[in-house]
Amino acid sequence: MTSARRIALASRPTGQPGRDNFRLEAFDLPEANEGDVTVRSLYLSLDPYMRGRMSDAKSYAAAVPIGGVMEGEAISEVVKSLHNNFVPGDLVRGRTGWSSHAVINGDQLRRVETHGAPITTSLGSLGMPGFTAWSGLKFIGQPKQGETVAVAAASGPVGSMVGQLARLAGARAVGIAGGPEKCAYVKDELGFDTVVDHRSERFASDLQTACPDGIDVYFENVGGHVWDGVLPLLNQFARIPVCGLVAHYNGSGSADIDRLPATMSTILRRSLLVRGFIQTEFAADHFDEFLDEIGPRVASGEVRYREDIIDGLENAPEAFIGMLTGRNFGKLIIKIAD
Ligand SMILES: NC(=O)c1ccc[n+]([C@@H]2O[C@H](COP(=O)([O-])OP(=O)(O)OC[C@H]3O[C@@H](n4cnc5c(N)ncnc54)[C@H](OP(=O)(O)O)[C@@H]3O)[C@@H](O)[C@H]2O)c1
């Protein structure tokens, strides 16, 4: 038996999660059965959706049970394989959780493929978040030459890809980010046409100035006061892929005022298309197409990204809590082992 470490959900948070909602514990890996693969985790992806899994409110996926290992995707090395597709030493990606080791059926693993980019990109720009940006724009936002595309959390893995893909489509990319350092990165390094700081008191008027022709595609990542600034600027027939609402994930607070009348009347008057989506809707049919199209561009540096890599599984709770208020700068990843 291999002795391993994992982070379990100790209790359900009310509002902002705290350290005491998580528990670091040792456990014995179960014996592998036919078809199983035993893996050693190298890098764990931390993503905003995990806040939803900590809650037992009705959602599109089941909650993590109290005492259960926190859900998440990791890059791992195969140490033992009872599955035909894998041998020890293979690098794989799968939903093995916040855990140093795991035993998982090989059918649930994917080989890490990055077209020569660093393997960690398979958790970010070439993984689920990058695919989310690509599929939300391709199937819902559909930016056209000369249109204006706005996106918040613009320095993160989803937003950074949205803006760069919008520019590749010939649209004007307007980023929204928190603080001067993230804003400078979004404009100077990611190449967005312009950027607006949502933490500024002048956010709404700055956004208006940044969008002189209004907004044709708003890729919704955050909700809250950012949505208040965007709503009056939406053009007739604007498309709004609703991807995430991170400002609301911790529940009640100033973000949760009633926006329904203003939102619905704008949808009606401006003939808006508002379409929510979870990337899994498109992944089975289109992930490989995404990887073939964007992989070489990430590997060559044409499409850029930033990673925020924190050492040590034990530091995952603190890093995750910080991400929900914008303390991460780039795709948040926990390095578990060399
Ligand atoms: N639908 C899907 O299938 C799917 C898949 C993946 C991700 N998502 C969603 O996509 C969004 C972005 O994900 P990501 O992984 O790229 O996250 P991320 O950018 O790495 O991290 C979240 C960012 O949200 C911003 N933020 C936090 N609280 C905010 C607030 N109150 N107001 C405005 N901004 C706030 C912060 O950036 P600033 O400091 O710049 O504000 C923070 O860094 C999330 O809502 C996530 O749930 C959806």
From TrEMBL:
Q: Is Oxidoreductase tagged as a keyword? A: yes
Which Pfam families would you find in this protein's record?
ADH_N_2 (PF16884), ADH_zinc_N (PF00107)
Highest taxon, organism lineage: Bacteria
PANTHER family named in the record: PROSTAGLANDIN REDUCTASE (PTHR43205), PROSTAGLANDIN REDUCTASE 1 (PTHR43205:SF7)
Protein's name in the database: NADP-dependent oxidoreductase
Q: Which organism is the protein's source?
A: Aliirhizobium smilacinae
Q: Which residues form the Enoyl reductase (ER) domain?
A: 18-334
- Listed InterPro entries: ADH-like_C (IPR013149), ADH_N_2 (IPR041694), ER (IPR020843), GroES-like_sf (IPR011032), MDR_fam (IPR045010), NAD(P)-bd_dom_sf (IPR036291)
Which molecular function GO terms apply here? oxidoreductase activity, acting on the CH-CH group of donors, NAD or NADP as acceptor
* Keywords for the protein's UniProt record, in alphabetical order: Oxidoreductase
